[in-house]
Amino acid sequence: MTDPDGSPDDRRDPGSSHEADCVPVPSAFEGRATPTDDDRDEFAVNWPAAWARAGDALEWERDYDAVLSTGDDGGPPFEWFAGGELNACANCVDRHLPERADAVALEWNGHIGESRTYTYRDLHREVNAVAAGLRDLGVDADDVVTTYLPAVPAVAVVMLACARLGAVHNVVFAGFSADALATRMERAGSRYLVTSDGYYRRGEAVDQRRRADNATMSLPYELDATVVVDRLGTNPDVSRDDRHAYDALVDAYDGERVAPVPRAATDPLFRIYTSGTTGEPKSVTHTTGGYLAQVAWSTRRVLDVTADAVVWSTADPGWITGHSYGVYGPLALGATTVLTEWSPDAVDPDRPWALVEDLGVEVLYTAPTVVRSFAKWGAEHPAGHDLSSLRVLGSVGEPFDAETWEWYYEHVGGGDCPVVDTWWQTETGAVLLSTLPGVDEARPGAVGGALAGVGASVRDASGEPTDPGQRGWLTIDRPWPAMARELATATDWGARVAAESGVGRDGDWWYRVGDEAFVDADGYVTVLGRADDVVNVDGRRFSTGEIEHALVEVAGVAEAAVIARDDPDSGNALVAYVTTADERTDVSTLREALGDAVAAAIGAGVRLDQVVFTPDLPKTRSGKIMRRLLEDIANGEGYGDTSALRNPEVVGELEARHQD
Ligand code: WT7
């Protein structure tokens, strides 16, 4: 992997211009798109004031004093919409009631085929009941409420109920282990948990309750309350005073109203954890005003969602995509959001298309790894359904190769729907780079340029913008409303230059996002992948350090290095290189223990594709493991000079073991 202070490596040839591969706006789409180009002109002359256009997407209790306020030198701390007050739940629910109470807010489709429809009126009712219940359990403004739930409506309801109370939600993906849950609760000082008896995974019931109990027992404090959703029909035991059944809570408070608590624009709306480079989960906090404004605005512009649109963002609510484009964006606009308890790449190949057809999905937002599964299953599956409701197709999470892009465009969109490849991160909160549907031509393989109001560059190690085609680091050059609070308030620029994220120097501020990229002459950015110790597998983000940490805890293991190898299905596959303390260790039992350790530390969904036992790991003279060399070996690629290695003889050894 690239040393953050070194220069981006140049192993792969970025290739030349995409000019030949442009896909113009589909003619059938002309006239069906709502975004226009005029925001770009406005932002070009009027930044940051033009971000008021995003602010206008919301209803404010109190007007903001300034769109952006900065530190004295124009740098951080950045505050968006300072002085303004609003409530996110009121924006996503209450304000639609006068005109759209009977419009569908949420369509839920469960793992075993159940479905549930919430109108805005229904959503308002349940959110109020849950907010009243949580308030009586002691939840107050700024308290952190953790959810550990599968993708059921209760996740969205609890998120909105927290927002209503001014409490901070902390959604943890249900597939995470007890240890991972405990860390994420403890770091956030969370004293409230909403979990379930279990959930379904690939048709099988998984016991969630025991994992949640193990997690809470390991916390150094007692929880104030735990609410349990009965997902499996087990009628979970809630006899203890601090345990409550979700359904009983909703019934008990049905019909109650809780006034939305006005929040400052800069107040936290939620926390979410992601993987950083340090091996520790990285906490990201999003704000009430800036986040919601840019999320609503980008849902409108980039995904072309209008109030009557049906949007299916396939990501689990446990990830930022589920927060921004599954819950907050569509609901802020009064649209219908589709929530599925299943992942579209892990079901019967016709099920996603039957759902699109049944619900009249207009906007489909998913990840390349999912589209690769669709393509593998074959075009006959989408072809067997009426997909004419689809209007815009989106992708996020990892580089979208041109071939898979074309498949999506042809076989899902029928050549009529623009495909937007959107680049963003947990830290950015909202899409920052993308083409606009109906406005820009697409270049399969490239994400497009920075959206109006956003500045982006690709820079070399000294911070200078690179020439077209030259690889470097992707940076975001100006603050943006949905930026995580941690980025907005990081004033120690110098110290952060070497750190994993926020970067700024001498009066310039920019944020180095951790990706390697290159830009073409027209400003279309091609993202090559992470340049740090973060890997994307199946569209999910892991820290190699976190996995390594779990591996070296296993008895008998001396050292471990984890890298991602290119994989045609998942994009990346994880390979672990492990040295044992004693050469005579039985590696077959160890192999199993390693898999278990990773599952326990992070979650059962994290799978090591290959474990390579080796007497030694390649190291520099200063003792740093050369992960880049391991990547090259795993990919069967040539590698350059290995003379910088302290132990060059290990290379031949590793190659031989790879073939074992
Ligand atoms: C990382 C962020 C934002 C929701 C999903 C992931 C990669 C994201 C793209 C894209 C190439 C992409 C980057 C980024 N990524 N979108 N369109 N093309 N790579 O959020 O878990 O915070 O991961 O995902 O490497 O840094 P995340």
Description:
With 660 residues, this protein is of the alpha/beta class. The chain contains 21 helices and 30 strands. Among the domains are: 119-261, Rossmann fold (3-Layer(aba) Sandwich), CATH 3.40.50.980; 533-659, 2-Layer Sandwich (GMP Synthetase, Chain A, domain 3), CATH 3.30.300.30. The protein has a 7-stranded mixed sheet with strand order 5-4-17-16-18-19-20, sandwiched between helices. Strands 12-11-8-6-7-14-15 form a 7-stranded mixed sheet, with helices on both faces. The two termini are 25 Å apart. Residues 1-20 and 493-506 have low confidence and may be disordered. 5'-O-[(S)-butoxy(hydroxy)phosphoryl]adenosine (WT7) binds at residues 274, 320-321, 396-399, 421-426, 447, 513-515, 527, 530, 536, 541.
User: Which range does the strand content fall in?
Assistant: 15-25%
Question: What overall form do the CA principal axes indicate?
Answer: globular
Helical content (DSSP H or I, runs of 4+): 25-40%
Q: Could you give the count of β-strands? A: 30
Q: Could you name the CATH class of the domain at 119-261?
A: Alpha Beta
**Class inferred from helices and paired strands:** alpha/beta
Here the CATH topology of the domain at 119-261 equals: Rossmann fold
Could you report the average pLDDT, rounded to the nearest whole number? Answer: 89
- Show unreliable segments: 1-20, 493-506
Task: Figure out the total of helices.
Answer: 21
CATH architecture of the domain at 119-261: 3-Layer(aba) Sandwich
Q: Which cofactors or ions or other ligands sit in this model?
A: 5'-O-[(S)-butoxy(hydroxy)phosphoryl]adenosine
Output the radius of gyration.
24 Å
